[in-house]
Amino acid sequence: MPSLFEPVQAGDLHLANRIAMAPLTRNRAPDAIPTPLMATYYTQRASAGLLITEATAISPQGQGYADVPGLYGTEQLDGWKRVTSAVHAADGKIVVQLWHVGRVSHTDLQPGNVAPVAPSAIRAKAKTVLIKDGVPTYTDTSMPRALDLSELPGIVQDYRHAARNAIACGFDGVEIHGANGYLLDQFLKTSANRRTDDYGGSIRNRARLTLEVVRAIVDEIGGGRTGIRLSPVTPANDIADDNPQQLFDYLLAQLAPLELAYVHIVEGATGGPRELPDRPFDYAALKAVYRKAGGKGAWMVNNAYDRPLAEAAVAAGADIVAFGRPFIANPDLVARLEKNAPLNKPDSATFYGGAAAGYTDYPTLY
Ligand code: 8OZ
């Protein structure tokens, strides 16, 4: 049985261990530009088998929170180049999470202060964060407008272009953010998608945009450098589906032939309970569908893992376990898990926004 601390192959990515740093939004990139402090933060955590960056907007329209980074524009790309070279100098591997928030945004954050876009004009009962007079302020998301059919190829193109930018910035690959109630998840799920064209209605139609995005990125940079994150039952950002098992079984069967590096599954409620009584889901069955359809990507699991739970997951066939909050507070998480050393506790007051405090100042063991 493989141990968490043994290497693993995920597509083209050779990872030194089976512990990934989950994507974590930290809101420390004013003007969407990654800072030198961010390079320090990721480099401190480079002993993870894989670093997945915080969600990063593929376009200004894909932006939904104050001070999150982007993957467009010279200054943004130069900022990311500093991050990837520092991580590589520390022997780390890093992929960037490609993000379009869809309706989870606010007119203040959109170019020209227009409405955010979504599959349908249905507002999310969700909050975003703006910065008002220097103070982070939680605000209701704005009413979105439904995307016109003619706009969808442009969105696919934005993803493709961002993936090309990622490789140009020195990233080892990309993770497509298909989770947590953002644009792709909005198209996938019935609560946000009421379209009557080829992108709404049947499962096949609701999965169409996600599959077009994945195929475009695979065509651009290769499946071996492409992962995807999905959250079948999360209620995050006011999202729900009438039949998630059928939806995700279909999606995973379609993803199988694309030879992705990995599939990353958020189990249960993102950052919350792993089991949701009103939203049952069989993850083992989902994985079986993917493998049966020939999917060879590494199977990455996430949400509220500790060492015993992670070891049990690996024993049950998971290839990689992604840790989120423990990585905020423990830059040397891999060493601490290996030694069964105590973990620093993350301070939620410094999760979003600010500078070095609660970001690059958590102590290591040695
Ligand atoms: C926390 C705060 C803002 C955004 C996600 C990108 O849930 C996020 C996110 C998390 O995927």
Features:
366 residues, alpha/beta, 8-stranded parallel barrel, two-stranded antiparallel sheet, binds 2-Phenylacrylic acid
How big is the Rg? Answer: 19 Å
| Small ligands present | 2-Phenylacrylic acid
In terms of structural class, how would the helical and strand content be classed? alpha/beta
Between the first and last Cα atoms, what is the distance in angstroms?
A: 30 Å
SSE pattern, N- to C-terminal: EEEHEHEEEEEHEHHHEHEHEHEHH
Spatial order of the strands forming the largest sheet? 3-4-5-10-11-12-13-14
Assembly annotation: single chain
Number of helices: 11
What is the molecular shape? globular
- What is the average of the pLDDT values? 98
CATH classification class: Alpha Beta
Annotated CATH topology = TIM Barrel
Count of domain modules: 1
CATH architectural arrangement: Alpha-Beta Barrel
Number of strand elements: 14
Overall description:
- With 366 residues, the chain is an alpha/beta fold.
- It has one domain (8-350): Aldolase class I (TIM Barrel), CATH 3.20.20.
- The chain has helices at 36-44, 74-89, 152-168, 183-188, 203-206, 208-221, 244-255, 283-292, 307-315, 325-329, 333-339; strands spanning 8-10, 13-15, 19-21, 50-57, 94-99, 117-118, 127-132, 135-140, 145-146, 173-177, 226-230, 262-266, 298-302, 320-323.
- The strands form four sheets. An eight-stranded parallel β-barrel has the order 3-4-5-10-11-12-13-14, surrounded by four helices. It has a two-stranded antiparallel ribbon with strand order 1-2. A two-stranded parallel ribbon has the order 6-9.
- α8 links the parallel β12 (262-266) and β13.
- It is globular, with a radius of gyration of 19 Å.
- The model has no long low-confidence stretch (mean pLDDT 98).
- The chain binds 2-Phenylacrylic acid (8OZ).
- 2-Phenylacrylic acid is lined by residues 25, 55, 65, 180, 236, 270.
- Residues 25, 55, 65, 180, 236, 270 line the site of 2-Phenylacrylic acid (8OZ).
